[in-house]
Input
Amino acid sequence: MFKRYRRLRLNESLRDMVRENNISVNDFIYPLFVVEGQGIKNEISSMPGVFQMSLDEILKECQEIINLGIKSIILFGIPNLKDSIGSDALDENGIIARSLRAIKEKFPTLFVITDLCFCEYTDHGHCGILDHVCKSVDNDATLEISAKQALIHAKAGADMIAPSGMMDGIIYTLRKALDENGYENLPIMSYSTKFASAYYGPFRDVAQSAPSFGDRKSYQMDPANRLEAISESLEDESQGADILMVKPALAYLDIIRDIKERSRLPLCVYNVSGEYALLKAGQKAGVIDYERVMMETMISFKRAGANLIISYHAKEVAKILNSNKGYL
Output
């Protein structure tokens, strides 16, 4: 006798009962980009529905996010003035610190994660202090200023810090700095496996962080390397990371599964700008059922092993989940 798998598929209620993975608004972290000024809400042409916003508009957006049931944001700061070392990121009155204080004052229960990096703050667009001999980022000099940046975020009220620069030793450095300054309970979400990916293209429009020369291949990961990708995340786990991450997500589902099978830490994925832009382009062209494809993409991340999803689709997904449309 052969197995009749369809017995468990013929009834909608039964399909729901035996579904192995589900999506919840609790899974999502929504990215926000804050700029200087007031009354600013600039839509990014390559990312429809995504905006650079001044702080007053960010606060309105936070209220909408909370109303949708989303519990967390990840905050990126874009200052007016940039220099070679990203000084605004090291200023207790810089854009990220001021924004953090305002958000936490108005929405104390909103869980605010801060992106800790220098690419948005430097005039050269790289993720730290330059090593002009190697024509790359000086790893250890960048570790030193990253610790300073982490303490500024902590003092301003960050609920979690997420270093994205892919510097060797960053988790150890930040954990040590935070612990020594009384922030031993502040968690770190590591961008532990971050690839040098073409999928980041539209992000550089919204974050104004495109490198002025070269690329980031000397410090971000080679997309061809599976074993190194696993090692990167396991190394950050050993240094004290509380949550690991794979970025991008959609083209790296195998890596998500590989890491999930080897670590017991929660795993986040970043559904990046290029992935978002491709679906939006497909929607505009009328060649895909946009909402169904979007929801299928989200469940693929959960099926691969993700616990958390950073996504520009988060508000759209929340609206679908709240409406009980049942796309899955």
